[in-house]
Write a structure and sequence with these properties.
With 577 residues, this protein is an alpha+beta fold. The strands form 8 sheets. The chain has a 5-stranded mixed beta sheet with strand order 5-4-3-7-8, with helices on both faces. A 5-stranded mixed beta sheet has the order 13-12-11-14-15, with helices on one face. A hairpin with a 2-residue loop joins strand 23 and strand 24. 33% of the residues are buried. About 3% of the residues have low confidence. This is protein-disulfide reductase. It catalyses: [protein]-dithiol + NADP(+) = [protein]-disulfide + NADPH + H(+); [protein]-dithiol + NAD(+) = [protein]-disulfide + NADH + H(+).
């Protein structure tokens, strides 16, 4: 049966190239494509430079080895997105399956276009009859591993029913007991029966003790745990430590006042999938009846700090009380309440000069959360510097940026900050964690604008600068509405449809859009495009309407420039479009 809309492919035509009827192993051996007959084939689009790919490949390898050891008719073919053969060879050496030769770039590009690959990792499954089963197998492997086989719609429906039944019948035992292990560990290493947790509220705390998030979050969670104990609440915490080194695990266990699941216990992977873990830290709240009350309380704790204990067990009613307190606190927000903590009442220049926070009062201030180790931060920085200089040239006394670093060492901090023309918080500054919690910073680069009155103006400054550049200043709702009107007016007088020599097969339609890469000049654009949806083809208006004498339409179109390529977010690296 064909899946996913009934598409059918000839695997030989898909994988072969000019004078090539084989794929290769990582030792150089050739395997005839004809030998893949009667097998389910997974086309694995991936690259060594892509962190989500490197995280997923071991899971896929484990799944592949489990299935092939059971003599399941399965093969995986690696289609590389690496930029050089050395990277391909190094990455492919970790894989137990086959690959399209790196040298056959034409075949690799053809496969990309055939399946419209816009993000990696991507895993396309095709059955032995050439029927497309799914283009979203990455998610199924992440969640179900080898249980996803044979990757048919019927199997996915069955897995969904099984998962729903598990949720309905969930108990603290079904969550924490694995095989013959029916205990968790205390900080002393003692085995504590899971039965002792029955009838109690239990927080499942997912984290990695080597991460910065652990150092910031765990002390707060410990204080909350102590306050609830003092208040005679029937509450325990079971830590799911994601450390991959036993020495690190044991060191953490000895210091931790919570229970812990044993090191590298097989239930950890299951719990990650079962609770759909997306970020660290995560705190899942389990009720006294063993049912899940809240999938993640970490955001509540990060927002409210130790005061979050007053919201226990984080029911809708209790959350309402916390939100009212937070609302009152927000209304009282000033720049000093954000940036002054005791003796820490200053920001610094690159030469170390301390600038009192009071000197920034009355200005529009952007808090720039970033780090040297972050690729997207490096990609965005030139754009930010360009727009900062534009705004400062017009508003020298009413605008400033403060760099809030997530770097882990002084050298990285100094190297990255040396290229910036604005102010910063010192590297080891206690205000940084407070600001990240206050503004719920989940990813970087992130920019938050504080208005002259000290109130938060926008948490989406990165998007506003990308789309509008310096024109977005001062980032208020009123200014954004004005820009939206300007964008609408910009296109007045432009033709709705055009024919262009760069895309003669179809008309191009004037389309309001987000970010895209112009197929004419290969630069980034936004707001308006002359687009062919059928072919996913875009032209900047300036490229589409360029006059024969070389003059363009006269509209400034450089404000949306950004680095071409990929942006890595969460579990995928996507092409910028």
């Amino acid at each position: 049966m064909a899946g996913n809309g009934g598409e059918t492919y000839d695997i030989t035509s898909l994988l072969s190239g000019n004078d090539r009827d084989y794929v290769v192993r990582n030792n150089g051996d050739q395997v005839k494509i004809a030998d893949l007959k009667d097998k389910t084939v997974g086309l694995y689009f991936s690259a060594h430079w892509c962190p989500p790919c490197r995280g997923f490949t071991p899971k896929l390898a484990e799944t592949y080895q489990n299935l092939t050891s059971q003599s399941k008719p399965l093969e995986v073919i690696f289609i590389s997105h690496d930029e050089d053969e050395e990277s391909f060879t190094s990455y492919f050496s970790e894989m137990p399956w086959l690959a399209v030769p790196f040298s056959d770039s034409e075949a690799r590009e053809r496969l990309d276009e055939t399946f419209k690959i816009r993000g990696i990792p991507s895993l396309v499954m095709i059955d032995a009859n050439g029927n497309l089963l799914t283009e979203k197998a990455v998610g199924f492997v992440r969640e179900h591993m080898s249980d996803a086989y044979p990757f048919t719609p019927e199997r996915f429906a069955e897995l969904k029913e099984i998962a729903e039944a598990e949720k309905r019948n969930q108990t603290i035992r079904s969550i924490l007991v694995r095989g013959e292990r029916d205990y968790v560990l205390s900080s002393k290493g003692d085995k504590v029966p899971v039965s002792e947790l029955e009838g109690k509220y239990v927080g499942l705390y997912f984290n990695d003790s080597r991460s910065g998030e652990w150092e910031e979050f765990t002390p707060i969670l410990t204080q909350i745990h102590e306050k609830l104990k003092q208040n005679n609440e029937n509450f325990e915490i079971v830590t799911v430590l994601l450390d991959d080194e036993e020495s690190s695990f044991n060191d953490t266990l000895a210091k931790l006042p919570f229970y812990v699941i044993p090191f590298e216990d097989k239930s950890i992977e299951k719990l990650i999938r079962y609770f759909e873990l997306r970020s660290l830290p995560t705190l899942v709240m389990i009720g006294s009846d063993g049912k899940t009350l809240r999938n993640n309380c970490a955001d509540v704790i990060e927002e409210h700090g130790v005061d979050a204990w007053e919201g226990f067990p984080f029911s809708q009613e209790k959350m309402g009380i916390l939100e009212e307190k937070a609302k009152a606190k927000l209304e009282q927000q000033t720049l000093e309440s954000l940036l002054v903590r005791g003796e820490f009442n200053y920001v610094v220049r690159k030469d170390g000069t301390k600038i009192p926070v009071s000197d920034l009062v009355g200005k529009t201030v952007i808090l720039y959360f970033s780090a040297d180790w972050c690729g997207p931060c490096h990609a965005f920085l030139p754009k930010l510097i360009e727009e900062y200089n534009k705004i400062k040239s017009k508003h020298p006394d009413s605008f400033e940026i403060v760099f809030v670093s997530s770097d882990r060492d002084e050298d990285s901090y100094n190297d990255f900050y040396s290229s910036m023309p604005w102010l910063a918080l010192p590297l080891d500054d206690p205000r940084k964690s407070f600001l990240k919690k206050t503004f719920k910073i989940r990813g970087i680069p992130s920019l938050v604008a504080i208005g002259p009155n000290g109130k938060t103006v926008s948490k989406d400054v990165r998007m506003l600068l990308t789309e509008h550049g310096a024109h977005a200043y001062p980032f208020t709702e009123e200014r954004i509405k004005e820009l939206q009107v300007e964008i609408e007016n910009m296109a007045k007088g432009w033709p709705e449809k055009i024919k262009h020599e760069l895309h003669e097969s179809h008309e191009l339609v004037l389309t309001k859009c987000g970010h895209y890469c112009c197929d004419g000049c290969d630069e980034m654009g936004g707001n308006w495009s002359y687009k062919c949806r059928e072919c996913d083809f875009d032209l900047h208006p300036k490229c589409a309407l360029e006059k024969a004498d070389g003059e363009n339409m006269g509209e400034e179109d450089g404000q949306n420039a950004a680095q071409e390529g990929y942006v890595c977010e969460g579990d995928v690296c996507r092409k910028v479009e």
